[in-house]
């Protein structure tokens, strides 16, 4: 069972790298990537819901560190690794684990996580660490998350339901 979990975490980490580094819309601000719109956080969020906060944090760290070495987009900033780990920790902590989660449960877990990480911590890190002006970074982050939070929540729910209930592959705790 441990090997199976490790394989899923590795797969979801790789998927996050591809979705973040290759299949995302990047908006440069001041010559540095200011806003990234895409589905890169989704596999990290799914890992958190499926396996818990430790595995979610591991997926977030692997995704950020390996993603940087595979396709760097500016200097390496350890704060972004911590933020990525938080994306893996928070979703499973913000909901009460039940047999079958509702859309509202996913919306709460994903929404609170994305508000804290993508709308608050990422813009502040870009501002304080890289010197980008806060307003041009914050406004697109807010707009993108208003759109992405319901999409991430819905996709997380559907993917997890497919894995756990329809296919019955048994990757629960």
Please, could you describe this protein's structure?
The protein contains six helices and two strands. The longest helix has 33 residues, at 134-166. By secondary structure, it is mainly alpha-helical. The relative contact order is 0.14. The protein has helices at 2-21, 41-51, 53-70, 78-93, 103-128, 134-166; strands at 25-29, 32-37.
Oligomer class: single chain
Point out poorly predicted stretches: none
Shape: globular
- With helices defined by DSSP (H or I, 4 residues minimum), what is the helix count? 6
Helix content: over 70%
Class from secondary-structure proportions: mainly alpha
Strand order of the largest sheet: 1-2
SSE pattern, N- to C-terminal: HEEHHHHH
Radius of gyration: 16 Å
Question: Strand count, sense and closure of the main sheet?
Answer: 2 strands, antiparallel
Q: What's the total count of β strands?
A: 2
Q: What is the average of the pLDDT values?
A: 87
- Give me the CATH architecture, please: Orthogonal Bundle
Instruction: Count up the domains.
Output: 1
- Would you tell me which CATH topology applies? Arp2/3 complex 21 kDa subunit ARPC3
**C-alpha termini separation:** 10 Å
